[in-house]
Amino acid sequence: MYELIEPKIKHEPARFGYEILRNCRQELFNDNLSSRELEILELTSEGLTDKAIGKRIYLGVETVKSHQKDLYRDIKATNRVHAVRLGIEIGYIGFEPEIDDVVKDSVSKRESTVLELFSLGFNTDEVASALGLSPNTIRSHRKHLFDKLETRSMTSAVRRAFEVGLFPFPARGQGVSALRVAALLLNREVDTTPILIAA
């Protein structure tokens, strides 16, 4: 069942994409994430380290970590990998699905389970304990996942899992995606077209 939502956002010149995203979500869903937190979450999902994120957006590493701490608290994430999964499910992180059956089929059920547990905020020891395996075996599964998904971090592996269809597209993904933000920037105004969200 879906509910029709009429955004109450007035037309205005587009500014910074993440600022628009923040404004849209505050209007529609009463979220309180800052535009900087959204930007850091997006970059985290791309697999960037804190140092690389700071360099990209001209912030010190400690400032990046401070924003991440606030972000984790706001969305109730236990760590950066969990934050990426929640960011995708809630709709903070937008992406264009690239369903790839070859990649999906190459990932074993065990590897998929390992990735699922990491995405829920488990660390290596916790995943090992949950599956009755050694930490070294979990590290081996993680390496295989990185190779198959062509990523170098667990955060980008989680994002990639959604992109290729390994994880189902989230039914709770009710947010204004990065693709819509791009459209807003191109149109130079905020789109007030009603959208459908899961009721």
Describe the SSE topology.
Elements: E1 2-5, H1 17-29, H2 35-45, H3 50-57, H4 61-75, H5 80-90, H6 101-106, H7 109-119, H8 124-131, H9 135-149, H10 154-164, H11 178-187, E2 195-198
Antiparallel strand pairs: 1-2
Helix pairs in contact: 1-2, 1-11, 2-4, 2-5, 3-4, 4-5, 5-10, 7-9, 7-10, 8-9, 9-10
Would you kindly provide a written description of the structure presented here, covering whatever features stand out?
With 199 residues, the chain is mostly helical. Helices cover 60% and strands 4% of the residues. It has 11 helices and 2 strands, in the order E-H-H-H-H-H-H-H-H-H-H-H-E. Helix 1 crosses helix 2. It is globular and about 40 Å long. The protein starts with a strand and ends with a strand.
Task: Summarize the main sheet.
Answer: 2 strands, antiparallel
In the predicted model, the low-confidence regions spanning at least 5 consecutive residues are: 1-16, 172-199
- In what order do the strands lie side by side in the largest sheet? 1-2
Give the count of helical stretches: 11
Q: Over the alpha carbons, how many angstroms does the gyration radius reach? A: 18 Å
The level 1 CATH classification of the largest domain is Mainly Alpha
Structure summary, number of beta strands: 2
In the CATH scheme, what's the topology name of the largest domain? Arc Repressor Mutant, subunit A
Q: What characteristic shape results from the CA principal axes?
A: globular
Binned strand content: under 5%
- Let me know the CATH homologous superfamily of the largest domain: Winged helix-like DNA-binding domain superfamily/Winged helix DNA-binding domain
Q: How far from one another are the termini?
A: 6 Å
The assigned CATH architecture of the largest domain is: Orthogonal Bundle
Structural class determined from secondary elements: mainly alpha
Element order: H for helix, E for strand: EHHHHHHHHHHHE
Give the total of domains.
2
Instruction: Please estimate the helix content.
Output: 55-70%
What is the residue-averaged pLDDT? 77
